[in-house]
Amino acid sequence: xxxxxxxxxxxxxxxxxxxxxxxxxxxxxxxxxxxxxxxxxxxxxxxxxxxxxxxxxxxxxxxxxxxxxxxxxxxxxxxxxxxxxxxxxxxxxxxxxxxxxxxxxxxxxxxxxxxxxxxxxxxxxxxxxxxxxxxxxxxxxxxxxxxxxxxxxxxxxxxxxxxxxxxxxxxxxxxxxxxxxxxxxxxxxxxxxxxxxxxxxxxxxxxxxxxxxxxxxxxxxxxxxxxxxxxxxxxxxxxxxxxxxxxxxxxxxxxxxxxxxxxxxxxxxxxxxxxxxxxxxxxxxxxxxxxxxxxxxxxxxxxxxxxxxxxxxxxxxxxxxxxxxxxxxxxxxxxxxx
Length: 338
Ligand code: RIB
Prior knowledge:
Elements: H1 10-17, H2 21-29, H3 36-49, H4 55-62, E1 67-72, H5 78-93, E2 97-102, H6 107-119, E3 124-127, H7 135-142, E4 146-150, E5 160-164, H8 166-179, E6 185-189, H9 195-210, H10 215-218, E7 219-223, H11 228-240, E8 247-250, H12 253-265, E9 275-280, E10 293-296, H13 299-311, E11 320-323, E12 326-328
Parallel strand pairs: 1-2, 1-3, 3-4, 4-5, 5-11, 6-7, 6-8, 8-9, 9-10
Antiparallel strand pairs: 10-12
Helix pairs in contact: 1-2, 1-3, 2-5, 5-13, 8-9, 11-12
Alpha-D-ribofuranose binds at residues 73, 77, 79, 151, 196, 226, 252, 279-280.
């Protein structure tokens, strides 16, 4: 049998036993809190996987390096809130604590928080990069601090990363609107300097081209801020346009929320007059008066996987995970174009 490429983690045991990582941690540290049947299941998984506690992690804990930093683009976006929750639950299972900050997509803020976290002596940092270059993160790693890229594929093999295929996500949304009969689609998008925005646009354009449509003619891109006000700004611009598209794809659910609110105030029916699709499928998407069709990202899993990579330590081989998004169709896009 070929040697395992990476150390069995507490998450592997949890998956094998069908319990949370917190339960596995309790079996290891506070067995009295776990029912006998669950404890036996976990112990069987530990034996099957020959799991051995991460001694270096425990030593680091003894050395009190038990804090990890995370820098996301905007913690007020429910997407990042859910990702952060996934990170926190995974870290807590190993008695680590989490410090979180928002870069607001500003490289200077990202750099400042990196410095602050380093001064705090964090074990490592998980970062949604604000730009394409990660040279500054490689320098942090050179100083012995773990680095995991969050919601961003890694441009170098040596740095672990967790991302979602946003090109596929943009294509799924656009293909769905084409299937509903829409031939002219607005895309309320962020600036292309944000990788997620550029990739979703690329996916939308590929779907149009694959359908034999001219992306330049069929897609009306409007650049907006990545929040509900951005959705309002984008819709106001579209409502004033002569040849109004019959469908709107929004780069995330916050933009879609603002778009829906503005369309409704303008007396425009969703989906009868304008179909609407969001991205992230955050909790509120299904709860809206007009439930929102959205491209679901595995938010909690994305965070937990990044934390798992962090806890394996800087000596472990780098891992690159790209999750696939899925389209969740709801009322906001399900009547055929006029
Ligand atoms: O930050 C912009 C978007 O990128 C978020 O809404 C989420 O979709 C992330 O992937």
